[in-house]
Amino acid sequence: MPDRMSDEGELVELRVDAALTQLPLARAVAANIAMRRDYDVDSIADLQLVVDETCTMLISRALPFSELVLRFRTTPHGIDIHCTVPVLDDTPLDKGSLGWSLLTALVESMRTEVSGGESFARLAIELRMARRSAAA
Q: Which InterPro entries match (predicted)?
């Protein structure tokens, strides 16, 4: 498998059961991506927290026995994360929740959308975590 690490970045996609038992795997993949891009320990921990909270928010709304899809795209300026799950209805996420506040404090940008699907709607969260410079 060729190494696609370049200025264009790389794309990593993870598909897992939409279950809380899959959170350690999602965190491990996020940490590995950040380590490969030479992030510092604090930034890696922040990314793991972001992925954990994002997945937890989505899993709480996901249909039973469904799939959580995470896509990580590295860029020279950070990591873009796109996560989706199928949901029963098009109710948006609660932007007043503690989880939402935590995420907005840790990421550069964040948005959510609910889109119609063939059978069920899909709830998505898109985040951009900027690469931080080490303190001098």
A: HATPase_C_sf
Length of the chain counted residue by residue: 136
Indicate which CATH number applies to the domain containing 65.
3.30.565.10
Res 1: pLDDT: 32
User: Cβ neighbours of residue 110 under 8 Å, at least 6 residues apart?
Assistant: 103, 104, 125, 126, 127, 128
For residue 125, being part of any structural domain is answered with yes
Task: Write out pLDDT tens, residues 35-67.
Answer: 999 999 999 999 999 999 999 999 999 999 999
Asked, for residue 6, whether it belongs to a domain, the answer is no
This prediction has a pTM of 0.87
- Per DSSP, the three-state class of 39 is coil
Whether 3 is covered by a domain: the verdict is: no
2 burial (CB, 10 Å; 0-12 / 13-18 / 19+) is exposed
In a domain, 42, yes or no: yes
- The amino acid at 31: A
How many domains does one find in the chain? 1
